Amino acid sequence: MRMLLIHSDYLEYEVKDKALKNPEPISDEQRKGRLDEVLAVFMSVEKVDESNPDEVVEKAVKEIKDVASQVKAEKIFVYPFAHLSSELAKPDVALKILQKIEEKLKEEGFEVKRAPFGYYKAFKLSCKGHPLAELSRTIVPSGEAVSKEERNIALEKEEELKSYWYVLTPEGELIEVDKFDFTGHENLRKFANYEISKNRVADREPPHVKLMLEHELVDYEPGSDGGNLRYYPKGRLIKGLLEQYVTEKVVEYGAMEVETPIMYDFEHPALEKYLNRFPARQYVVKSGDKKFFLRFAACFGQFLIKKDATISYRNLPLRMYELTRYSFRREKSGELSGLRRLRAFTMPDMHTVARDLKQAMDEFKKQYKLSMEVLRGVGLTPDDYEVAIRFTEDFWNGNRDFIVELAKIIGKPVLIEMWKQRFFYFILKFEFNFVDNLDKAAALSTVQIDVENAERFGITYYDEEGQEQYPLILHCSPSGAIERVMYAILEKQAKLQAKGQKPMFPLWLSPIQVRVIPVSDDVMDYALYVAGKLEGAKIRVDVDDTNDRLNKKIRKAEKEWVPYIIVVGNNEKEQNTVTVRRRSDGKQVEMQLEDLIREIKAQTEGFPYRPRPLPLLLSRRPKFRG
């Protein structure tokens, strides 16, 4: 069973239509309902619950009671919500479990209301917004048999994990999260609430989805598994430029690029152990009688390369990199959301072999700064993301100054998650997290110091005395998944749009950087001449040769976020000039074409370039959506 518990000012619903052929019979009074000052419990009863329904009811009631006690709620709203799971129980079993939970909670003295089962319902709620207001729980019957490939110890541990949450200031003050004054740090407050609640379900469509569809960048692929997307030409250009940019930054940093398989053997001893230490749900494929899993990071292939390599202390730190197109994680269907969370994604993945903790921490700090630089290049500054740093209490006690320095580098308070003991393979981890328009957070850049896998995979180096030693390994993605970078860029622009500002891509990422609009067919030859000069300077340009009126052509270019709009008429043709509208400042100026080329090149210098992804003339372009 999956549960999402939201402490709310109120929850109300209204039945709209049948979701099942034979839904639960209800009266007219049950078609609407509301409770105020309530703990709303959204529930998905899963197939696994069918093995022991009574145990599931008992565990669910206990969890609900515990949360109600913490938030001091006396009213409970039991709300069937199938979207939390893709492995639902049979409807008759699910209904009986929900009815028993309702009965048991009433016996415990709560005022309880249950929404009808088997219907599409509209609902409204008002979440209270404190750190315990949104929580998620997973219940599994203890007697359920779970196959080796389905069981993941790390995921189980993650759900059981007891975390201690703080905010660390750049001045070095460690403050319990519920005692920190978030005034002036509203985004950090939202991030802390999201992390502590562990609610990853997307209950609404984030604004970036509308933008990615309107701009014909990315779309859902109905012919594939959920969380696998199709990219139209403009989206593929942006994605390809981001892939090239991040790869160039990592190689410039000193990493050696490699390529490894996407499929690995379940029976490989080191890989099998690592699967149970990495919190990810894997895809399983069969080849003959053997089972394989699809990689969810580049760790496997890079570790196996390192195992077979002869490494000297003189080679350290040794950095290896792969752009994994694709990595696969079988995320829950209710968590899939546009570009934010996918099942197939492109992950720039670097692994660094370090001889000891001192060298590992030095690399950690360098990669922390590298990540800031990479995000700055795609238009994301520290004001756009929040930092989480995670470690054990022992690591904090021994390395406090190092952690404080990380907060000083970013220049603002950061969220701290501390554990009494180490559960996973790493002792230190940071993430830069983007908080979107729905107050959901998504990790971008991350670095971890891994203390287990060198020994697990048999990775060694030779020290000065010629003795084999186990190194430490750093896992680094300086940008996070490429798709998630696109999500963050679009969500940022949606925020600016909501404030009345003009949204736009960074100039080097704009699919079309300049649009040339001739005022009539008489100057089409000059429009094509201007476009040719720009294209020769490696600037992405197109020409609006359609029969639309001039104002409509300009509005169309504005709607497509084209950074520079050139309008050419007889005057410009005679004087060999261009009239330019800049999207960045809204100004319209007449200038020499060479000056415009210099202006654009100054802004795109140091970034990768790809040619225009669509035909030069707008009249020659297909429409990919609707």
From TrEMBL:
Boundaries of every Aminoacyl-transfer RNA synthetases class-II family profile domain copy: 231-506
Protein location: Cytoplasm
A family per Pfam: HGTP_anticodon
Cofactor(s) listed: Zn(2+)
Class in the EC hierarchy, top level: ligase
Main location: cytoplasm
CDD domains, A to Z: ThrRS_anticodon (cd00860)
Residues binding Zn(2+), per UniProt: 299, 351, 475
EC number: 6.1.1.3
A molecular function GO annotation: aminoacyl-tRNA deacylase activity
Keyword check for Cytoplasm: yes
Cofactor note: Binds 1 zinc ion per subunit.
NCBIfam families reported in the protein's UniProt record: PRK03991.1, thrS
Subunit comment: Homodimer.
Protein name, per record: Threonine--tRNA ligase
Organism expressing this protein natively: Thermococcus pacificus
Gene name for this UniProt entry: thrS
